[in-house]
């Protein structure tokens, strides 16, 4: 009991100090260009930034689907040469980024364009940081180790979920240690974010759901954590409102351009919020599921979110009640407790509407102690969670995610 109280006191003290320091670190906001066909503006934007030969960081699937051609056509029309790096895979690894840095340097590139989901943007951030610092990317793992402006950098998301186009974080995998590592530095924020809903038309329903719930997780965790400010809460609140209104529509009709547009804005706003107000236990646990079993990050967040909401309930009543109104699940006539219950129930109902699974077939019971240890360690003194979770509580939560044969 004494050790538990000491851990709570230490965690809160460190979080309070970091919270004050967090307010002193300026975080840039990307220049936002959004709307149907916005990708055609890329060449002009790049030229204004001084870029003449970008490395396009994307994946082979987008090349096959013809999405990349929309970008290269825009560059060709302005006679801008480029180098295509389409080797990105989910959960970009240290070796993958090393290959990208080599391609960037050997090809004489002077700028980067990330086209794709969070993996493409994380990969591009890692390449840009390692190239400008002229070091191996693993030496930049941690907090504020870049400390140097990146080359001209444009982010063009093709999913509405990660918000990476607005964040200070790059998530990189170490396949040997089965770990997800992070580079955190304000310089990682792309200079320009281009949101084009036409790039998201026809995105498979399951990817739409998982990425949308990733954005919802960012919005919620940034709203209920102790780093939240009036500004970040406004971004989070707006994101929750848009997601509950438009994610089911985008899921049911992948060609609903307005739903796609609204979701792209929601994802961006949630990214702005959580890169300033941080995240919580949903991400801490999801990172372990991704690092250990390669479970897609959005899916991991979606499955874990309701359980963490239940865990933090009594410490987050006020915030849940406010978000219930944002989500259209409650009115101001409800008591705070009633509204909070409606919010948690609404998130669970949204998961069911989007056909989100309730457990992980990959999860092995014998792995749970290690996963819980890593998750709790990741969050401790790092994430401004409303309620501290110990290892036993994390193990109990993970056991609820075991798929029943």
What does this structure look like?
This protein is α/β, with parallel strands linked by helices. Helix content is 54%, strand content 10%. The protein contains 15 helices and 9 strands. The chain has helices spanning 2-24, 42-49, 60-65, 67-77, 94-106, 118-133, 205-224, 230-252, 257-277, 281-293, 297-311, 317-326, 336-353, 368-379, 391-399; strands at 31-34, 54-57, 83-85, 111-116, 142-143, 153-157, 169-174, 179-184, 192-195. It has a 6-stranded parallel sheet, sandwiched between helices. β7 (169-174) and β8 (179-184) form a beta hairpin. α7 runs antiparallel to α8 and α8 runs antiparallel to α9. It is globular and about 60 Å long. 50% of the residues are buried. The mean pLDDT is 94.
Q: How do you describe this structure in short?
A:
This protein is α/β, with parallel strands linked by helices and 405 residues long. It has 15 helices and nine strands.
Helix content: 40-55%
Cα shape? globular
Q: How many helices?
A: 15
**Mean residue pLDDT:** 94
N- to C-terminal distance: 37 Å
Q: How many β-strand stretches?
A: 9
Within the largest sheet, what's the order of strands? 1-9-6-4-2-3
For the biggest sheet, the summary is: 6 strands, parallel
Low-pLDDT sequence parts: none
List the helices and strands in order: HEHEHHEHEHEEEEEHHHHHHHHH
What portion of residues belong to β-strands?
5-15%
Structural class: alpha/beta
Q: Provide the gyration radius in Å.
A: 20 Å
